[in-house]
Amino acid sequence: MPLMAWLARQGLFGPDPAQLSDRFPTLLVAAGYAFSIWAPIFLLDLLLALHPFGRQRRAGEGWRQARPALVAGFALCAAWMALFPMQRFGLALLSCGAAWACVFYAALRLARSGEEESWLLRAGVGLHAGWLSLALLMNSAQWIVARQLLNTERMLPWSLLLWGAGALLLMLANRALRGHWAFVLALLWGLLGVQVKQSASALPGADLSAGIALLLAGLLLLQSLWLWWRDRRGRRARRGGEITLVNLR
What we know:
Blueprint: H1 2-9, H2 17-23, H3 38-50, H4 61-83, H5 89-113, H6 119-146, H7 156-176, H8 181-199, H9 206-248
Helix pairs in contact: 1-4, 3-6, 4-5, 5-6, 6-7, 6-8, 7-9, 8-9
């Protein structure tokens, strides 16, 4: 993935991805600085890729289930990085969606396994899944504009529908992952990037889109706080039940 991203920036597959985003502006794109999140994602992914070599026999069920999905997700993500600058926007969107499904499944397996693995490695999967969730939303808008599938002069109506579908997806995914902090961090970083970009945009409806991004970031943060509180209360209740059971014995 880092190699494909670097080759794409060198123009091997076509125009630079940043130039393509400027060529096909949308109401759901983030500011350029937001994409710097790929640096920690790549670093954590590389650590994750090296991790299993010394842990094969001791790995829990959650990691065994997550590994094939991660391999597929990383491969699809690398393909997406080549397809987008090639302007194969439909295939790029499919690759991005499939990569998101694989990485999110891996994050879900790890979140529900209850295994005590390195928080840094778990963070890498959560961060990657969170950013791909937003990338799927942004790539959908880019595909619509690039192929002129809908009105590109008045983008607000269909952008609102896309925001609604994206908000539902992000809220459900966050709930399934129980407010995983790295997943939420990637979402907040990206949504604030969208808010910054749209606040400075001259496109009709950009101000409203910026407000929606900020509102969605606030809702996700509140949802995460509630999920963390509920999870902590549940752990306390289970711990109290175990103590009571021991006393009864």
